[in-house]
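Could you join me in thinking about how sequence relates to backbone shape in a protein? To get us started, please write out a protein record for me. Would you write everything just below, so we can both look at the same thing?
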Amino acid sequence: MQRLRLLLPGPWLGLLLTVALVATPAPFATLAQADAARVVARVLAHEAYASLAFGVVLLLLERRAARGAADAGTGSQFSAGMVMALGTLFCTVAGYFALQPMMADARAGQGALSFAQLHAISAGFYLVKTGLVATLAWRAAGLSR
């Protein structure tokens, strides 16, 4: 289980960076804007569900490691890894599942915030999530030595 806890953040970070740097800009460079938006919406939906899965598994693994450290008297039952895993889950839920319906309403001219404002907030959550996963991967690389 320790190996999985140390291995998991790397592929997750790769997924997040690939989505951000390749999978979302490419459709806008090659397709009509409406078609590109549909493709990117689908990619981001898949990423959100994958991030939920990665986040829950990593949270459970971090919880197990923290409990083991607490039982050994070398740490707390609530570790920094758990906080970061919870943060990634929060960013995923808030950034995708809460904001996407609001973005659809904003496109239709409803709601207090514009589509651009909601898009910026969503991108901010994605950036924070990517930073948290990068930190988890960095820590895992240091712990695996």
Summary: Residues 18 and 127 are 13 Å apart (CA to CA). The mean pLDDT is 93. Helices lie at 2-7, 9-23, 25-30, 33-71, 80-107, 115-143. The two ends are 16 Å apart (CA to CA).
